[in-house]
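Notes, Module 5: Reading structure tokens.

Key idea: the token line is not a picture. It is a compressed description, and you learn to read it the same way you learned to read a sequence, by spotting repeated patterns. We will look at two proteins. The first is printed below with its tokens.
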Amino acid sequence: MSIPDHLLPRVTIVGRPNVGKSALFNRLVGGNRAIVVDEPGVTRDRLYGRSFWGDHEFMVVDTGGVMTFSRSQIDVMEELAITTTVGMDGIPLTVREAAVARMPSMIERQATAAVEEAAVLIFLVDGQAGLVAADMEIADWLRKNYSDKCVILAVNKCESPHKGLMQASEFWSLGFSPLPISAISGTGTGELLDLVCSELKAIEASDSNEEEENYIPSIAIVGRPNVGKSSILNALVGEDRTIVSPISGTTRDAIDTEITGPDGQKYRLIDTAGIRKRAAVASAGSTTEVLSVNRALRAICRSDVVALVIEAMACITEQDVRIAERIEKEGKGCVIVVNKWDTIPNKNQQTTTYYDQDVREKVRFLDWAPIVYSTAISGHSVDKIIADVGMVEKERSRRLGTSILNQVVQEALAFKPPPRTRGGKRGRVYYSTQAAIRPPTFVFFVNDAKLFPETYRRYMEKQLRKDAGFPGTPIRLLWRSRRRGNKGNGTQ
């Protein structure tokens, strides 16, 4: 049973900038979701990722650094490398300065909001830098305002277990029991997760069932300007929900509309502004367009299935490819809608076949997405869009039985075993299981994730699609090393 993200308990990582919060976030959720560089202030918004340990499943929250208790505004802006010029052409200087001046407090408010919603707090400090004044201020802040919450003090950058105990000892003065860990190597993260899970409460399954019954999938209609996104929405809704104009950029806000499909399933449609190339948006100097494009990109993030609308005569452009990359990266289901199909002259039985091949060649990473040919103005094939979206959403929410999954994996391994290294080592898959849906996520427990190169991982995904389906949705394969005596290993 999959519990919706918002029902899962939150585990928030908090601390001053540059102590390794994003590295720990990546370690706990698997992969490289957060940007990790050796500079303070890189993370500004809250970043959420789903994680599990044993029988517990939870959301990990990465935050920007809490740092402005006793720092001047100028010092904070310099440390965060906030600029008043880059990307702000056309905006009056007074407006720039006012917006930039609010940035540090906005980052800190994001961190505070994440702390408010947390069931468990991981207070992260830097074992190499040692105890600093900012750590003491944050500890006092947590004790004063969040004494009712469980706080786990994790001392990061303690790669050596013996030396780590020495590094952690000076943090006893903060009033919490320090636990030495290394987010990069994984040392101590198993013990950290044990502590986290011991404080988490089990989620009632009945609540999850009720939530699933009331679940309404969201469909974002995205694409370049003037490809007919609003016309498609109006055709689906059956009324003029949005303004349709030949002038590019008519739609600015992301507009939500709820409809009911032929099978009774409800959907939430999101019409968005057209997404132009970043350089074109910057050169136009329109603050409104910048905000509109950002809203369109956020609409992709909060959607379940994306209808990527392209213009028939233009076929796939460079900007369409970039939007497609964003859809795949966000793990969203996708239906490619070729609109204005009536503008293609001299169509015959082979036209669709050739067009399919061209689309598949240009966006290979969406080769699993169905293609619909429509003319929104006349309503031609618009009903097929919602039918394909319904199919994609069902596939995106589908669970594959563990026995069937392992049978597929074993057949793939028998047909093409993992390659050997120069030293003669070969990867072994102990077993696999489906860990999540939306998108379908599969965990492979192996002897060493490094023994499975990217080419072999793509082969396994291809075989999984071939034997188990999942059309219209990306699937995620996570490879977890299980070495003897290494309790703190992580997802690869």
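Here is the second protein, with the sequence above and the tokens below, as before.
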Amino acid sequence: MGSRVSKLTCCWGSRYKGTVLEAPDVETEETGETYELPPFQEFSFEQLRLATSGFAVENIVSEHGEKAPNVVYKGKLDAQRRIAVKRFNRSAWPDPRQFLEEAKAVGQLRNNRLANLLGCCCEGETQPMKWPMRLRVVLYLAEALDYCTSKGRALYHDLNAYRVLFDDDCNPRLSCFGLMKNSRDGKSYSTNLAFTPPEYLRTGRVTPESVIYSFGTLLLDVLSGKHIPPSHALDLIRDRNFNMLTDSCLEGQFSNEDGTELVRLASRCLQYEQRERPNVKSLVLALTPLQKETEVASYALMDMPHGGASSLEALSLSPLGEACSRMDLTAIHEILEKIGYKDDEGTANELSFQMWTNQMQETLNSKKKGDTAFRHKDFNTAIDCYTQFIEVGTMVSPTIFARRCLSYLMSDMPQQALNDAMQALVISPTWPTAFYLQAAALLALGMENEAREALKDGSSLETKKDGGH
């Protein structure tokens, strides 16, 4: 008898230290404790990034917890499986080996009362933000608060680092969520009480000066790279113990004068008496002359890729990669037709005798009809036939998904095409063709930055493959 995974699936994820995938609902006709879910596996960060549309803000379903900061995103791993990606920061899992061991252990559990763990991602370290970019973040936030104040919106509730978002150019932006109270009872702070403005603890009310106090905690975050309680930070400042306040990753990146000025500004913001704190306009004036490398784009300061023809030209692409980068669907079709199914070699297909006798002929007939339609550019028929092949489920073929992906693109169905390219990658995680087709689908969806990343990954895999021969 069989089992199937429902369309709701979960996934935890993190570029910093780790990522994990779950599947909550399993329907089965069997009564045993083992369920026929995909085995636990390691996913690439690129797979999860694509599944969540680049960890898009609109896909956030849950934000951080105080003890283990993280953000949970919704997404789609493939056409059937909706997922939730839990993205941890570095402090949640300091040791990546421990994270991986824990994830693998939990991933062995399978039960219809669990959101079963499908896999994890544990890719490298992220580089700490450079000093000029940190200064840019706090200036842009101060400018955002200044604008809101000028429009009669001086109150910002629970200002913290998780309110900072980054656009496609990696420019920092202030989330609008903090301009509204969190609930009807007027609760305005969800953070640890150690970081809450003292007047809020006394009165339960947020004032414009409370926002300045919270901004001071952000300045400490920027300087230290940690979330230091203001009372402890002020003790360090009074003792002139600046080394304890400074992120070791910033060594040599700023002068003593600049560091001292930022500490002084943070200290003013964190004054106990509201009247002794600066106003938001004075924050802008104080931070503006501290800015460094103002001519350098934010994405460059953050070492993030950026779309554009010149960046694409820098990649070494195969003919298929080139065709996908310029959305030449005719050329893609010719290349896929020429390649055939040679990349399916080595794909595991475990078939019982019953499957061979009862289903194999029907499956092969669907494939044959699909291939004929694909060859003659009858893409609607190709989609139907390949769908029949996939739904029977007795054989696994990344090439079938690649061909249906192109058929969807030819039929102006880019989202379905992206789903198929992602599914091909699930089956064959190091297949350059899957990344290239993802890029074509992403370009059709207008996601140029994500497309470039997919092209880059495909090119990198192809280079490794060629180097191994």
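Summary for the second protein:
- The chain has 18 helices and eleven strands.
- The chain has a mean pLDDT of 78.
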